Amino acid sequence: MRTLRIGTFSPSVVLGVAAATGALDAAGLTITQVPARNSPEQFAALLAGELDAVITSPDNVLAYRFVADNPLGHTSDLRILAAVDRGLGLSLFTAPGVEDLDSLRGGVLGVDVPTSGFAFVAYELLARRGIKAGIDCEVAALGSTPRRAEALAGGRCAVTVLNAGNDLRAERAGCHRLSRAKEIGPYVGTVLASTAERQEEWLAALVGVIVDTSGRLASGQFRECASSVTARLMGLGDDDVQRYVELLADPDEGLVADGRVDRESLDTLVTLRTRHHAGSAGLADALRHDTGLLDERFLPGAAP
Known about the structure:
Elements: E1 2-8, H1 13-20, H2 23-26, E2 29-35, H3 39-47, E3 53-56, H4 58-66, E4 78-85, E5 91-94, E6 108-111, H5 119-127, E7 138-141, H6 145-153, E8 159-162, H7 166-172, E9 176-180, E10 190-195, H8 200-218, H9 223-234, H10 238-248, H11 263-276, H12 283-288
Helix pairs in contact: 1-8, 1-9, 6-7, 9-10
């Protein structure tokens, strides 16, 4: 049995269901989910060998593979092994009592870090409503999604983006959902990523379990198990548990059944990054000449 340490921002229901159904045992794997405080620490731990793989925003992989002025200050041979979900409700939220756009001016936008990940979704959704991040509102690095959800509910920021059950808890705390990331276009919210040096045998097993479990959940299987796991990992009430489980099967925001990053979603990520980060101007060209970002060797139907 191989024990893997997987970095996550929010607890992974897919991994929880895979454990509960015996899929991980059958693959010879046990998983320890390691919560990230922020993306720089997550990727520093991955590159140091303290994590075996991460479930993270694909934009983070773009940043640490291609963009020299990323928060770690260097690039590395990082690979996307599988797409996991399309955002799981990723949305722009305002704090309790902040119900209109004018109230955001002069307030604080909470992000993980200002130059990667979901921050670009926040900038874009605000810009479409006439709010310029960094000009009309201050941008503050508040860390991972659960941390930002706490900060928003506690009034330490006026607006942020939330998903993966954190959005449902925020609504219960009186926060307001203004808009959803799917308005921007096709989008991949999280991916499984690792480095080129990791052992192929357990990578193949891990990808197989995640894709198979995601496909089953996306088709409506394992609902009772998913409900139990969601309640345990997310701490949600019965109504919100059912909303979350239904979201897993949503074609626009739910799980990616085949594990593949589609071209349209990758284009959305590149557009957001180049539009909102001057240091990413050459990203589209770099991707055209890159063959290693999407490592699909372990996906179902991949060429031998």
